[in-house]
Design a protein that fits this description.
The structure holds two protein chains of two kinds. By secondary structure, chain A is mainly α. Chain A has one domain (36-85, 102-327): MetI-like fold (Orthogonal Bundle), CATH 1.10.3720. Helix content of chain A is 74%, strand content 0%. The radius of gyration of chain A is 27 Å and the shape is elongated. By secondary structure, chain B is of the alpha/beta class. Among the domains of chain B are: 98-173; 248-263 and 271-376, no CATH class. Chain B contains 14 helices and twelve strands. Chain B has helices spanning 47-55, 82-88, 100-103, 110-122, 126-139, 145-148, 158-169, 188-205, 216-222, 240-245, 250-257, 345-353, 355-360, 373-376, and strands at residues 4-13, 21-31, 36-40, 64-72, 75-76, 93-96, 176-180, 208-213, 225-230, 233-239, 308-311, 314-316. Chain B is globular and about 70 Å long. Classes of the chains: A mainly alpha, B alpha/beta. Chains A and B meet through helix 1, helix 9 and helix 10 of A and helix 2, helix 4, helix 7 and helix 8 of B. Chain B: Residues 332-377 have a biased composition (Low complexity). Chain B: This is Dipeptide/oligopeptide/nickel ABC transporter ATP-binding protein. Chain B: Belongs to the ABC transporter superfamily.
């Protein structure tokens, strides 16, 4: 084994010379193994929009998780009526006071407590429905993308079939689709989650498919193919990890729309029929008849929905920027 | 018999509504173990399509037809089924690509990209694979290999990336290596190092190397045999020294003439080949190079020129070739009589005996920046638009 040794030595000497040159001319990353995700995270930390979004969502999470344990009144306690303060029939719904920060709702329940407890429900619906959409959409899109990008003639056939189904779903207005599903399955919390989740399936599917097809044409896929790596392994090990960035961004943005859509379904009466558990959409619907008397009852949940959605959107946009390959150095 | 015998390889792209493109048109060459064979030509002459066809990497679509034979140690690479081809790729035949950054997966550490091949073809896994991967990186001259294994492609310099790519290609000790412009994306000092590395690998392992390049400097430093391609056909084949000493095909002469030279006098102008690769004639109508050729004669048109054989090592496809050095007055450009028989073997030997003169002409010192032939020619269009 004289040959390889000599190569090694010669090559190493040259490489060391090269490295010294390299260190002089350019500052190399000192950390070992900085992946693209780590780099994206570093960029994210420097983005003010990301910080604002994270803070908003952090507060929202905190409220959703621990809030219900600290609320001053039970969200179902019709304390206002019991104490004779609220007479909805006569148009008497008191506003904020020292004891009841946001006043009462039409049934004499403490509005602030309901808002805080409602955060958990809203978060649950948003996250679960997005996960449902992500799981189904990524599965459909991943199969279609891998088939179209790497699968040859049969693959293109599979892709076409799957995408026609997805296109049909895309053709329906999302809220109409959600309402139909919710009406079909009967009003319940699970229904809301499924309905809102299914609506986001075509978006995830299309996105992942497009991203995978673009990646399947890249040089590293050709290089891996030239090394005899199996196609299934190329699809899962090479193409998929490179295609995930836009999907993750989309998931963050979808959380925002999912919350709004879940609220809309509740507003339309297709939400959780168990009104004991407050939900922002339900609160909005409940406030409707009293808009003339106490518009604030609609404004509180509306603002809560808007701020949460905005938080997710800010974070999503910031993530899009951080993961943008064009901004990579 | 040679390790790889390519016979009459043709690749045709047919697309509805567009002209049929014959990107590779009857290319034949052979490569022996331990030999470096160059495929040289400007952009769009079919070099890369040739390599992709040999690797079976052209998409299998109705519009793409690959014909001919590529006999690799008894197996026809163009005819084996996909499963067998996948086993051959990476194990027996491997390829090195032009752009090391885009050829490495950006989200996977280098180490996993090396061990993936080791797992696929040599059944190595876990620590054994990691150890072998570190040895491979060390072998191609990457310092501190254990650390590099954990790094991502964007953390490596261009030269390091190409070394890593070479390490992956030679991981399973392939018998044939196809390098498709392996140094084009690198700067010149790194180019020289990478070529040196490839040369060492070929010498020490007996791997056959097909070197695809547009850079005659690379050819001069590396190749034993050179095939000059034009518009999908081999127009001249020769051993390295005779080719540089006395190119016979006007296109080869043009390529050599368009290299910027350090020893050229001040104010001396480069002589580019006029026209561009777009100005080709379909081979069926005569010599594809005729519209750009200074030595065009009537016989160039009408029918495709045959490969003229001078002696065993040397063929060219021209009816009015450039006369060999030392022959009497150059043939008149209008002479219809082809001068194909003009070579006296003694003259070729004489050229071989004077290596100094030969080497000095176009070949740069091996570690010096290699001149890039294409810089002198106008930017050529991609092959889809041409031919």
């Amino acid at each position: 084994m004289v040959g390889p040794m000599t190569i090694t030595e010669r090559a190493r000497k040259k490489a060391e010379k090269l490295d010294r040159l390299g260190e002089l001319s350019a500052a190399r990353d000192e950390e070992r193994g900085v992946s693209l995700w780590q780099e994206a995270f570093r960029r994210l930390r420097r983005n003010p929009a990301a910080i604002v979004g994270t803070v908003v969502l952090g507060l929202f999470l905190l409220v959703a998780i621990v809030g219900p344990f600290f609320v001053p009144y039970a969200p179902t306690d019709t304390i206002g009526i019991r104490e004779g303060l609220v007479k909805s029939g006569q148009g008497i719904i008191p506003g904020p006071s020292g004891d009841h920060w946001f006043g009462f709702d039409h049934q004499g329940r403490d509005e602030f407590s309901r808002l805080v407890v409602g955060a958990r429900q809203t978060l649950l619906v948003g996250v679960v429905s997005t996960l449902i959409g992500l799981a189904i959409g990524a599965l459909v899109g991943g199969v279609a993308g891998a088939a179209a990008g790497l699968g040859g003639r049969w693959g293109r056939w599979i892709d076409t079939a799957l995408m026609r189904v997805v296109d049909m779903m895309l053709a329906l207005p999302s809220l109409l689709l959600a309402v139909s599903i919710a009406a079909l399955l009967g009003a319940s919390l699970t229904t809301v989650m499924i309905a809102v989740g299914v609506v986001s399936v075509p978006v995830f599917a299309r996105l992942l498919r497009g991203s995978m097809i673009a990646q399947a044409n890249s040089d590293y896929v050709l290089a891996a193919t030239s090394l005899g790596v199996r196609r299934s392994k190329i699809a899962i090990g090479h193409v998929l990890p490179n295609s995930l960035a836009p999907v993750i961004v989309q998931a963050t943005l979808t959380l925002a729309t999912a919350i709004i859509e879940a609220a809309a379904l509740s507003f339309l009466g297709l939400g959780n029929p168990d009104t004991a558990i407050p939900e922002w959409g339900v609160m909005l619907a409940d406030a409707q008849p009293y808009l003339g008397i106490r518009p604030a009852l609609a404004i509180y949940p509306a603002v809560a929905i808007i701020i949460t959605a905005l938080g997710f959107t800010l974070l999503g946009e910031a993530m899009r920027e951080a993961l943008d390959p064009k901004l990579r150095k | 018999m040679a390790l790889l015998d390519v016979e009459d390889l043709s690749v045709t792209f047919r697309q509805r509504g567009k002209r049929t493109v014959r990107a590779v048109d009857g290319v034949s060459f052979s490569v022996d173990a331990g030999e470096v064979v160059g495929l040289v030509g400007e952009s769009g002459c079919g070099k890369s399509v040739t390599s992709l066809a040999l690797m079976g990497l052209l998409p299998r679509q109705p519009g793409i037809a690959v014909e001919g034979r590529a006999d690799f140690d008894g197996t026809d690479l163009l005819r084996v089924d996909r499963r067998t081809m996948r086993d051959i790729r990476g194990r027996d035949v491997a390829m090195i690509f032009q752009d090391p950054l885009s050829s490495l997966n950006p989200v996977i550490p280098i180490g996993r990209q090396v061990t993936e091949v080791l797992a696929r073809h040599r059944g190595l896994s876990g620590d054994a694979a990691r150890k072998e991967a570190a040895e491979l990186l060390d072998r191609v001259g990457i310092p501190d290999p254990n650390r590099r294994l954990k790094e991502y492609p964007h953390q490596l310099s261009g030269g390091m990336r190409q070394r890593a790519l070479i390490a992956i290609a030679v991981a399973c000790r392939p018998r044939l290596l196809i390098a498709d412009e392996p140094t084009t994306a690198l700067d010149v000092t790194i180019q020289a190092q990478i070529l040196e590395l490839l040369k060492d690998l070929v010498r020490d392992s007996g791997t056959a190397l097909v070197m695809i390049t547009h850079d005659l400097g690379v050819v001069a430093g590396m190749c034993d045999t050179v095939n000059v391609l034009y518009a999908g056909r081999v127009v001249e084949t020769a051993r390295r020294k005779p080719l540089f000493a006395e190119p016979r095909h006007p296109y080869t002469v043009g390529l050599l003439g368009s290299i910027p030279r350090l020893d050229a006098g001040r104010g001396e102008r480069l002589s580019p080949i006029r026209g561009s690769v777009r100005d080709v004639l379909p081979w069926a109508d005569g010599c594809a190079f005729a519209p750009r050729c200074d030595r065009q004669v009537d016989a160039c048109l009408g029918q495709p020129p045959q490969l003229a054989l001078t002696h065993t090592d040397r063929t060219y496809r021209c009816v009015n070739p450039v006369p060999p050095a030392g022959s009497p007055a150059p043939a008149s450009p209008t002479a219809a009589e082809p001068a194909a028989e003009g070579i006296v073997p003694a003259q070729a030997t004489a050229a071989e005996d004077a290596p100094a003169a030969v080497e000095d002409a176009p070949a740069p010192a091996e570690d010096a920046p290699a001149p890039v032939a294409e810089r002198a020619t106008p930017p050529a269009p991609r092959e889809e638009e041409s031919a």
